[in-house]
Amino acid sequence: MKARRFVWLFVSIVLAASLALAACAPKQAAETPAAGEKLAVGIVLPTKDEPRWIQDETRFKDALQKAGYNVEILFSQGDSAKEKQNVETLISKGVKVLIICPHDSTAAAASAEAARAAGVKVISYDRLITDTDAVDYYVTFDSVSVGAAQGQYLVDHAEGKGNPLYLYAGAASDNNAFLFFEGAWNVLQPKIADGTFVIKNSPEAVALQDKATLTRDEMGKIIGQITTNWDFNVAKTLAESNLTAAAAADKGKVYILAPNDGTARAIADAFAADTAVTEYFVTGQDAEVASIQYIIDGKQSMTVLKDVRTLVSDAIKAAVAFLEGKKPEETTTYNNKVIDVPAKPSAVVSVDKANVKAAIIDSGYYKADQFTGLEGGAVPGKETKLAVGIVLPTKDEPRWIQDETRFKDALQKAGYNVEILFSQGDSAKEKQNVETLISKGVKVLIICPHDSTAAAASAEAARAAGVKVISYDRLITDTDAVDYYVTFDSVSVGAAQGQYLVDHAEGKGNPLYLYAGAASDNNAFLFFEGAWNVLQPKIADGTFVIKNSPEAVALQDKATLTRDEMGKIIGQITTNWDFNVAKTLAESNLTAAAAADKGKVYILAPNDGTARAIADAFAADTAVTEYFVTGQDAEVASIQYIIDGKQSMTVLKDVRTLVSDAIKAAVAFLEGKKPEETTTYNNKVIDVPAKPSAVVSVDKANVKAAIIDSGYYKADQFTGLK
Predict the structure, then answer these.
(1) What's the total number of domains in the chain?
(2) Nearest to residue 665, comparing CAs of 647, 691, 646?
(3) Region 206-224: what's the mean pLDDT?
(4) CA 236, CA 641: separation in Å to the nearest integer?
(5) Is 447 in the same domain as 423?
(6) Is residue 96 part of a domain?
(7) Are 300 and 203 contained in the same domain?
C-alpha cells in the first residue's frame, strides 16, 4: 500500500442516514428520538488521560445531540474490567447501538458478546475487537496506510546506503499496532533489503528483513521486541536502552519509526539528548497539539493526521444506519480471527513542517493561537510567477462556478498564484486555454477535459513544456502525458445510484429505465459500471425489467461488461449530460412504452441535471403512478426537487473535497513530491495514479444532515426544509 501524501486538508464528511422513500409520493422519514426518550447510543472510550479521547468525547456528544439522539459516553481508564462494567451499564439503560474503542482487543470480546445478547448493535471504534463474532461494524482509519505514510516519510528522506533504522511499535494487545507496522514494513522492507536502511534495535526484524510480507506471528515477534505499549515512559526508556547498546556507527543521522505522537515525543527526546546523534527523522500519528508544536520546533519530523472529526462522523453514520434498521456503508472487511467485520476505513493525512499550517490550522483542526513559531511551517517561495493553471469545462453549470471560487480561495489562501479559464464546451478553446497558461509559466496544470480523447493534445503540450498535468474529475485518455487523476470514486457513485433503486424495489417485473452520460466522457462508463454491478443481479433474477435499451436487454445476463459492451448500451441511452437531450429521450421512451411498462417505475439517471429533466417527463405521464429516479452532484435545484418529492436521491460528491484533493496533488508536485496514490485508472495508454474521493448518498431522509448541517449549502437556499 502506498503512502498518503497530502498538503492541504478540508474535511467534509457528513452524517448520511437514509430512510425509504418514494420519489413521486415519498414516505415520511422516521422521527429521531426526542431528548426524553431512552438512550439510543452508548459509547465507551479507553481513557480520559489522552487528549485524543477527550476530543472524541466532545465531538461525539455535539454531533449526536445535534442529530437528536441521546448519548452517554463512559471511560474505561485502561481497565478491561471497567470497560466491561461500562458496557453493562449502558445495556441496562436500553442502549440500541454500542460504540466501543477497546482497551484490549481480545478482552473486549466479552463486552461485545454481552451487548449482542441484549440485541445491541456493536460498532468497534478505532481498534478492532477480536476473537468474537459479536461485532457488527468497524469504524477505523486506514491503519495500514498510516504505517505506510510513516514508512514513506523515512524513505523519502533517506540518502545513500547504510542508514541506521530504529523500529518502535504500539501495544501487542492492540490490533491496530499490527496494521500500522504492516503498512510501515510494506514500504520500508524493500529499502532494508537493498541496504538503504540497516535495522539497529530488533534482532527479530533483522532475521526477517528479506521477507516482503510478514505473518501475524512474525510481526508479533518483532513487536514484542520493540513495543512501547503506547506509553511515553516505556518508549523513552526503550529508546534510551537502545542508544546505550548502540555503537557510535549506529548513530549519526538516524531514522526512527515511532508508532504514535506520544511515543514519538518520548523517543525524540531520548535521541536528541544523545550527542552522538547528529540528526534524526522520527514519525508519529494522531496530530496531538504537543506533537504539532514539536514539528514546528523541529523536534518531531512528521505525524499522520487521523482527523477524528471524520472518524466520529463515520461512527455516527454507522450508528444511525443501525438505528434505522439499515446496513452502514461497507468498502472492505477486517478479519478479527473469527469473522470478517464490515468496515469503511476513513482517510488519513501526512503532516510535516512544510504543510503543518495548511493541514492543521487552515483546515480548522486546531487554532493558530494554540502554537508558537507557526510561521516557520510555511512553504517558502510561493509568491513567484504563476504556479497553478486550471481549465474547467464551462461557466454554464453551477458546479463549475462553485469549483472556480473554491479553487481560487484555497490556492490564494495557501499563497499560490492561480489562473482559471473556461473552455465553454469547446475542445479547441480548451487547447487554447492550456497554451495560454503554459505561456505564463504555469508549473502545474489542472484540467477537467470537455472531451477525454481530444484533451490528450493539451496534456502533451503541457508535458512538453515541463508542466505536471492533473486530470480533474474526468480522465484524459489516449496519452501518457497525465501525471495524476483527481476524481471521486465514480464506480461507487453509480453503485450508490443502483443500490438506491434496488433498496426500493418490491416484488418482480419492475420497469427499469436506464440513462447515461456522454459517450465521450470516461466517467459515464465508470458510473454505468458501478450501477450495472448492483442492478444486474436484480435484472437477472427478474426484479427489474429493462424497458428502453435492447442492447442492455441482450447483455442482461452478463455480470461484467467490457468497455465495448457498455459503449453499445450507452450509445442507446446517452443524454450527453444535457437537460434537453435527456428530457426528449425520456419522452420518446414513454411514447414508445406500453401501459404495462409504466405504473411504478425505476429510473437510473446519470446526474442531477438529467435527473430533473427525466423526472419532469415521467411526472407528466399520467400512466406513471410512481417513480424512483437517481442523480448525482447535489445541485441546489435537485436538492429542492428532493425536498419537494420530485427527485428521489442524489450522490453528493463534495466538491470541497475534490478541490482539496486537487490542490494537495498540485502542491505535492510543486514541492517535488508525489501525490498520494491509492489506486490507478487506465486511460488506454497508461495506468494513471489516483486517490478517489469519497461520495455520500442523499435522499429526503438525510438531506438536512448531509447538505445543511455539513455546511455544504445554507438552509435559506431552500423552501420546505424540515
Answers:
(1) 4
(2) 691
(3) 96
(4) 59
(5) yes
(6) yes
(7) yes
Question: 386-437: per-residue pLDDT in tens?
Answer: 789 999 988 766 678 778 888 887 787 777 888 899 888 888 889 999 999 9
The pLDDT of residue 67 is above 90: no
CA–CA dist 700, 314 (Å, integer): 20
Cβ–Cβ under 8 Å, residues 213 and 31: no
| CA gyration radius, the chain | 27
Grid cell of 287 as nine digits = 496530530
Cβ neighbours around 448 below 10 Å, total: 22
Q: Tens digits of per-residue pLDDT, 586-638?
A: 999 999 999 999 999 999 999 999 999 999 999 999 999 999 999 999 998 89
Do residues 517 and 490 lie in contact, with contact meaning Cβ atoms separated by under 8 Å? no
pLDDT in tens, 343-392: 988 878 899 998 999 889 988 888 887 887 876 433 333 333 578 999 99
Q: What angle do CA 512, 571, 585 make, to 5 degrees?
A: 55
Segments forming the whole domain that contains residue 92: 41-141+308-343
d(CA 192, CA 158): 11
**How far is Cα 258 from Cα 595, in angstroms, rounded to an integer?**
68
Q: What are phi and psi of 418, to 5 degrees?
A: -145, 145
Q: Is residue 452 a contact partner of residue 521, using CB atoms and an 8 Å limit?
A: yes
Q: Three-state SS across 122-173?
A: EEEECCCCCCCCCCCEEECECHHHHHHHHHHHHHHCCCCCCEEEEECECCCC
Q: What is the pTM of this model?
A: 0.43
CA–CA gap between residue 175 and residue 106 (Å, rounded): 9
> Does 20 reside within a domain?
no
- Say whether both 175 and 248 belong to one domain: yes
pLDDT at residue number 398:
65
Q: Is the separation of the CB atoms in 250 and 268 below 8 Å?
A: no
Residue at grid coordinates 449549502: 713
Is residue 178 classed as helix, strand or coil in its secondary structure? helix
Residues 495 and 576 in one domain: yes
pLDDT score recorded for residue 38: 55
Dihedral sign computed on CA atoms, order 597, 602, 603, 604? negative
**One domain, residues 99 and 187:** no
d(CA 374, CA 362): 12
Same domain, 88 and 129: yes
Q: How far apart are CA 66 and CA 308, in angstroms?
A: 17
Give just the sign of the alpha carbon dihedral 153, 159, 160, 161: negative
d(CA 269, CA 128): 31
Whole-angstrom distance, CA of residue 391 vs CA of residue 446: 6
pLDDT single digits (tens) 422-475: 888 888 889 999 999 998 889 999 999 989 999 999 999 999 999 999 999 999
Place of cell 443501525: 322
Enumerate residues 6+ apart whose C-beta is below 8 A from 17: 317, 320, 321, 323, 324, 326, 701, 702, 705
Per-residue CA distances from 139 to 24, 142, 179 (Å): 35, 10, 14
Decide if 29 is inside a domain.
no
* Segment 480-505 mean pLDDT: 95
- 354 in the same domain as 314: no
Q: Is residue 663 part of a domain?
A: no
Do 206 and 353 belong to one domain? yes
CATH classification of the domain holding 461: 3.40.50.2300
Residue 49 CB: number of other CB atoms within 10 A?
10
